[in-house]
Amino acid sequence: MDFMPCQGIAGKGKVMPVQTSAAEIRQRILLLKEVPPLPLIAQKILCMSVDSDVVELAGMIEKAPCIAARILGVANSAYFGWPGGVRSIYDAIYKVLGIKLVKSLAIGIAISEVFDVKKCRGFRPEQYWFSAIVTAQLSQGFLRSVFSSLRGDVDNVHVNGLLHNFGLPVLAHLYPDELSKAFLPSSPDEQQKTTTERIRAILGIDQNHAGGWLARKWHLPRDIVCVMENHKDIAYRGDFWPVVLLVGYCERQAKRFYQLKGMIPEPEIEAVLGINEATVEKMGYRIECQMEDINSMASLMATGG
After folding, report:
1. Above 50 in pLDDT, residue 160?
2. What is the mean pLDDT of the chain?
3. Judging by beta carbons within 10 Å of its beta carbon (0-12, 13-18, 19+), is residue 171 exposed, middle or buried?
4. Which DSSP category does 62 fall into?
5. Which residues of the chain does CATH 1.10.3210.10 include?
6. Tell me: the pLDDT tens digits for 74-131?
7. What is the CATH number of domain 117-305?
8. What ranges in the chain are assigned the alpha helix state H?
9. Which residues, other chains included, contact 227 with Cβ-Cβ below 8 Å and sequence gap of 6+?
């Protein structure tokens, strides 16, 4: 799903030229719709110490049955292939997924549950989660190849990948009818435009601004905000630029996998980050071999079943 920066909106159903400052975009969304608070469990997980143990995390997740059920489903999926299956969140963390991955998944699930996207025709939750999962997996896998001097203290790369397109369900929740028009173009001229261009024409804002604004309102970590806002800009060199470029690169690869095109090298970006050809081939092969399992996991994340 490809989206780009926006131009402007004055009100629901009315397109007017506006400025694109972040302050104005924030004010418009705040005035137009009531935005829910960050889920408590996501707040708690984000505040957990890096030394937190499995028991603490498992106990927290078990208090949220919907999240617990999906994490158990992921742990028991063919993607991980754990023999005999797991029946507790503790085992899902300790035996299969690990603390970092479970934290990332729990945050992603908790945040996505806040938004009702069912009214937005054309929004495909399975496609959204496919892109999120593959982007997160590739980002985690490629991070080891990134120049050590660029990695810094990157510790959220999986959640960065999982939430990179978070603004999309935000807009689907806030503007279901308008976003439906962008997803389902009615004329040949509109069909020639990217989804991003159609969203900009209708709403004047895109998921990068919407997701970044809400992430700031929720006081999410700054690296997550920067990724949400800038991952599509290959020229970005601001704060956390290596992880921003990495997630953007992985998102484009995820889109190609969804379109069944497979991994396509991007030599310039790969050279900047330090990703070598052998790693690109290895990661591409790994995703291709797991496509069926990834689709199943995306369906699980989208529907909970």
Report:
1. yes
2. 86
3. buried
4. H
5. 117-305
6. 999 888 888 888 999 999 999 999 999 999 999 999 999 889 999 998 899 999 999 9
7. 1.10.3210.10
8. 22-32, 40-47, 54-62, 65-75, 89-91, 99-112, 125-143, 148-151, 157-163, 167-174, 176-183, 188-191, 195-202, 207-217, 222-230, 241-258, 267-273, 277-289, 291-303
9. 160, 163, 164, 240, 243, 244, 247
